[in-house]
Task: inverse folding
C-alpha cells in the first residue's frame, strides 16, 4: 500500500486538517492516511493547550464521526520515549511488524497489511522550506517521500524548496493540490470561534469543557504543568478513553476549585488528574497496592482503586507529596477532618463536565461559591444512592458527613 502519514498537534483539529487529509487521499499518490496526533513533538514540548490524550481522542472521534474512509489514527508516539521526532516515529511506524499489526487492527485485510508499503510524509508547503533544518532529515527521506500540499495562491517557492531537498539530501518530493479552507488552531483558540472545527470535535470540546478559562490553568507552575502532561501520557497505558478523560477533567476542575476555595492549585491539578489512575488495574493488583497505602481500611472492590491509586502514583509516577496522595486515597469515601484539597478532589470527581449521570446543575452552581454546601449536596446524593442499593456507607464517609453536619 501507499501510506500517507500526517502528524500534527491538532490542538484542536480543524477543517484545514480535514481538507489536507481529503486532498491527500484524492491526490492519487496514496491509498490511505495514518494521522498521528503528537505526544511530545520537538517544537512544542509542553506548550500544547491540551495534554496529548484529549487531542488523540478528539481526532479519533472526528475521523469516525465524519466517516473518513481509509484514514486511521495512530497512538504510536505514546510508545516513544522522549521527543517524538519525525525520523524516530517513521523508523518505528515503517517496521514490518508494527505497520502490519496497526493496519490489521484498523480493519485492513491481513494480506494487504503484509504487502510491501511505501510511505509518504504529508506536510504543508510552508514547512517544505525549513525541512532541511529538521532532526535527521536524510533519515526521514530514507523512510518516506515528502508529499507537500500546495494551495492556489501559495507564495512558497515549492519548486526551489523541493529541488534543494532533492539535491542536498537525495530524497523524493511530490506535490499535491490542497482544496479547502485555510485556518489555524491557535487562531481558533484565541478568538474562541470554533466554527471551523468539525462537528464531532466541537461536541468533544463541549462535553469536556476544553479551551475554557479553567483549562488554561493560569497560575499553575511549569513543573506541575509538565507533571500533568506527563501523567496523561503515563495513564494512557493504564486507562481506557472514557476513564482517562474523566480523570484528566477532574484535574482541571480541581485546579479551578483550588482557585475558588484557596488551596494549592498545583497539588489540586495533580491529585485530581491522578485520582483514578489505578481504577483499571487487575483487582489483585489493586488489593495489593491498596493494602500498602491504607492497610485494611478499604476492602470493598469499588473502593480499592482509591488507596491503590495513591500507591500507584507514588511508586510508578513518583508522586511523594502526602497531601496529594491522601487526596487520591480518600476521593471515593471522604473521611473526617478533610483538608480543602481533599474536598476539592472529592467534589470535582462527582461533578466534572463530562459527568451526566444526573442533573448536576445545582451542585455545580454551589461549587462555585460554597464548598461545604456543595459537599453536603454531593454526600446526600451518595447517601441516597447507597440506601437505594442497600449498601453500607463506609465508616469514613459517615465521619465526613458528621463533619458536614449531616
Ligand atoms: Fe474513583
Ligand atoms: Fe473518578
Result:
Amino acid at each position: 500500500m501507499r501510506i500517507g502519514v500526517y502528524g500534527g498537534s491538532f490542538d484542536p483539529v480543524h477543517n484545514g486538517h480535514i481538507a489536507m487529509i481529503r486532498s491527500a487521499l484524492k491526490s492519487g499518490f496514496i491509498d490511505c492516511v495514518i494521522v498521528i496526533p503528537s505526544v511530545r513533538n520537538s517544537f512544542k514540548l509542553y506548550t500544547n493547550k491540551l495534554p496529548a490524550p484529549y487531542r488523540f481522542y478528539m481526532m479519533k472521534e472526528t475521523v469516525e464521526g465524519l466517516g473518513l474512509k481509509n484514514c486511521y489514527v495512530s497512538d504510536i508516539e505514546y510508545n516513544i520515549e522522549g521527543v517524538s521526532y519525525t525520523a524516530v516515529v517513521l523508523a518505528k511506524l515503517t517496521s514490518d511488524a508494527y505497520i502490519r499489526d496497526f493496519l490489521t487492527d484498523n480493519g485492513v485485510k491481513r494480506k494487504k497489511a503484509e504487502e510491501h508499503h511505501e510511505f509518504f510524509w504529508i506536510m504543508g508547503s510552508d514547512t517544505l522550506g525549513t525541512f532541511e533544518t529538521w532532526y535527521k532529515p536524510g533519515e526521514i527521506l530514507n523512510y518516506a517521500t515528502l508529499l507537500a500540499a500546495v494551495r492556489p495562491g501559495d507564495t512558497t517557492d515549492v519548486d526551489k524548496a523541493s529541488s534543494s531537498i532533492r539535491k542536498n539530501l537525495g530524497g523524493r518530493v511530490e506535490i499535491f493540490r490542497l482544496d479547502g479552507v485555510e485556518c489555524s488552531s491557535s487562531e481558533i483558540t484565541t478568538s474562541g470561534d470554533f466554527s471551523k472545527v468539525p462537528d464531532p470535535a466541537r461536541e468533544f470540546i463541549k462535553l469536556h469543557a476544553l479551551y475554557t478559562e479553567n483549562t488554561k490553568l493560569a497560575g499553575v507552575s511549569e513543573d506541575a504543568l509538565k507533571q500533568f502532561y506527563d501523567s496523561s501520557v503515563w495513564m494512557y497505558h493504564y486507562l481506557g478513553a472514557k476513564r482517562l478523560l474523566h480523570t484528566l477533567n477532574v484535574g482541571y476542575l480541581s485546579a479551578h476549585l483550588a482557585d475558588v476555595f484557596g488551596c494549592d492549585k498545583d497539588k489540586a491539578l495533580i491529585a485530581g488528574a491522578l485520582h483514578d489512575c489505578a481504577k483499571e488495574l487487575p483487582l489483585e493488583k489493586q488489593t495489593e497496592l491498596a493494602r500498602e497505602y491504607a492497610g485494611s481500611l478499604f476492602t470493598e472492590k469499588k473502593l480499592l482503586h482509591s488507596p491503590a491509586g495513591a500507591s500507584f502514583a507514588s511508586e510508578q509516577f513518583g508522586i511523594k507529596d502526602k497531601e496529594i496522595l491522601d487526596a487520591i486515597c480518600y476521593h471515593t469515601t471522604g473521611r473526617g477532618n478533610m483538608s480543602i484539597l481533599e474536598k476539592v478532589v472529592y467534589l470535582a470527581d462527582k461533578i466534572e463536565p463530562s459527568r451526566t449521570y444526573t442533573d448536576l446543575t445545582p451542585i455545580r452552581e454551589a461549587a462555585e461559591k460554597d464548598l461545604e454546601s456543595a459537599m453536603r449536596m454531593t454526600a446526600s446524593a451518595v447517601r441516597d444512592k447507597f440506601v437505594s442499593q442497600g449498601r453500607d456507607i463506609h465508616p469514613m464517609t459517615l465521619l465526613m458527613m458528621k463533619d458536614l453536619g449531616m
